[in-house]
Description:
Mean pLDDT: 97
Bound molecules: 3-acetylpyridine adenine dinucleotide
Radius of gyration: 23 Å
Structural class: alpha/beta
Shape: globular
Low-confidence stretches: none
Helix content: 25-40%
Amino acid sequence: MSFAAKPRDFDAVIIGAGFAGICMLHRLRERGLSAKVFERGNGVGGTWFWNCYPGARCDVESMEYSYQFSEELQQEWEWTERFATQPEILRYLNHVVDRFDFRRDIQLNARVTSAAYDEAANRWTIRTAEGDCVSAKFCIMATGCLSSTNTPKFKGLESFAGATLHTGDWPRERVDFSGKRVGVIGTGSSGVQAIPLIAEEARHLFVFQRTPAYSIPARNHPLAPSVQQRIKADYADLRRRGAQSLLGWDARLNERSALEAGEEERQAEYEARWTTGGLFFYGAYLDLLSSKEANDTAAEFLRAKIRGIVHDPVVAEALSPRQAVGCKRLCVDTGYFETFNRRNVTLVDVRKSPIEEITEQGLRTRDKRYELDSIVFATGFDAMTGALMSIDIRGRAGISLEGKWAEGPRTYLGVGTAGFPNLFIMTGPGSPSVLSNMVPAAEQHANWISRCIDYMRVRGMERIEPAVEAENQWVSHVNDVAAATLFPSCNSWYLGANVPGKPRVFMPYLGFPAYVEKCDEVAARGYEGFTIT
Length: 533
Ligand code: N01
């Protein structure tokens, strides 16, 4: 049975062909439902399509940063490195799309501008900037958490005579920085990955840093076939360990408190994690993200590492973060701090001397002018809500999502929002999403949403939406969980604090296993907390 009526009508429209949209399409296809995917890029991949800046790669290990919906797929695909590069991840996603013949349901170069619910027809009308207009019973937003770029509105931005680039919207063709004076603004994960490579090429690189970042060496290396074979012999075991871990990937969490351990033991634990490389540092102690005192011990360890790497003590001090470790997302790098020992690299502390304007020749801080040929904005994203807000989404009685979320996003389980029947949000605010491994998080939503649709079809049900009370309780719960951690203690994009004027609300949900359990429980109780008719 299909819900579809006419050819331009679909059972579901999915917006976005990144990791989330692709696995959602798979789950709907598997059920014989008609689905159409709109993707604004001219290729699939979402975040991994746009973020093709030098050095872009994942920081969850490749073997875990992949789909599990097909055992054949996970057995066949060979990752070449511990942390896959952006081109390799994009090759993987293109392989998936071709292997499962998904491409025929994906329309590229199609930017969705509006999605409106018609109560009488119980259908969504979805329009694109290119003139498409289709209708669907279910509208599924797979628009991504980090897909709407944030470029600060610096005075004079338009006057700059050189090239401006944003890491999150990088040109497809190679950018050649050789012989150029380059300015990079921003030292989050994107800046930290791009800076060492740009420094190798540029005549001179100026890094404009507002907040120093904690960064752990990736210690990336080729993936030995024997390591892959060992994992593939029992892939389910790795996936299970990931699913049971707070962060949705196997962080090898030490269940002890940092404060119970003696100084020597703590140093050894941090040193072991530093040597292993990557985000395993998060797992060093159970209370790193909840106790300031515990966190201080990790912060001091990481600052000592910076002092050990960076030769100039003044530069080392300027690169040393003061916020809690992990409060802003930990970065993973290859040669980041070492880059500041190069003679062609200058660190500019824009907290001490703020950027006042972009000029025709470059950039002016309060104290100095910098002549530049290119400016790279590594200034991040209007995270979690930006891509949704770029679409005019209207629910029952024409209410707008933008209006409803004016004080911050409100969802039930991150997948639905009251007043918007049959609208599903994948990895939305209120779900673990960016505080977990994005690929399993997206798959968990695809599985949950498709089973919910099964439930409705079997019972001849037509409409589902969160009850306001359940939504209110969930929003409070997400906030309570965050309030028990150090996350609200700094200005991060998790809180929307990086975008001027954005409401300060902690958006993701911490705790992948608890979240999955809650979603399963809700489903088992007949979608408790949803009004379903
Ligand atoms: O963005 P960010 P990102 N003047 O927001 C600075 C994921 N990711 O693209 O901290 C001067 O983290 C801003 O300074 P401050 C990952 O989840 C993953 O780097 O606001 N500076 C900050 O330094 C990550 O967390 C990978 O004071 C300004 C920087 O710009 C998320 O994407 C790789 C400024 C922005 O950092 C976002 O990372 C890349 C201003 N007006 C990204 N405005 C992997 O490794 C902003 N900044 C998988």
